Amino acid sequence: MTEIFGVPTQALFGQLLIGLINGSFYALLSLGLAVIFGLLNIINFTHGAQYMLGAFVAYLLLTKLGIGYWWALLIVPIVVGASGVVIERLMLSRLYKLDHLYGLLLTFGLALIIQGIFRNEYGSSGQPYQIPPELVGGFNLGFMFLPKYRGWIIVASLTVCLATWYVIERTKLGAYLRAATENPQLVQAFGVNVPRMITLTYGFGVGLAALAGVMAAPVYQVSPQMGADLIIVVFAVVVIGGMGSILGSIVTGFGLGLIEGLTKVFYPEASSTVIFIIMAIVLLVRPAGLFGTQK
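Structure (tokenized):
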């Protein structure tokens, strides 16, 4: 059996694949957080619960209505994103003129409420969600076996992340969004409805979390705790990449996933803490994050 640095090739590439899959979810979730924080200046602690909500809506669509995975990828982000629009209009919009701590506390409280409702209804155990038949099986690459569904997650996540980056950084719509955060009165003077733009932006960020939840359902099962277990790591990813940095979220998400996978191979004891160690080092050297802008 071929070895690299004393580690069997199949085991090494297997862990790198797991790292890429985790990194895909880190990137998608941190991207949603970065969009919301960068354009609305809100630290959205409800993000993990909205990720879990996406998985549960997909599960309920399948078990109650017979609507499968592919339709869920389209329906769930819209449904959960619409719930985010309601939250922004009824609750968050009332806090913009107050200290940012109030928004943080509100979203944290909402996360606890949403998780509590689903835990009370479904318990703490995970519910299985079937992989779509088209993505069952995999490819033998010689040095490793690549499951189709895992490959799909990586490609789909990267595509969504890059498309979001392009829209925000390279289009007129993205320019309006960025300008609205700096000078909303000026943008309003050009006939742009800034409050509506802010609402839809929050809904889009929530929709990204829901999309990640649908994609995660066949891999991690559907559990009320799935968001709480992941969101702390995702916040660390956002801090390392730079709060509000779209590119930073994407690069850091995938990069830290790979680092975490390699750590599991060469030093398993540190695999659960390596991201937080990196965060501490980055904050000491560059407090604004790797891609953040120094104030």
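The mean pLDDT is 89. The first strand starts at residue 3 and ends at 4.
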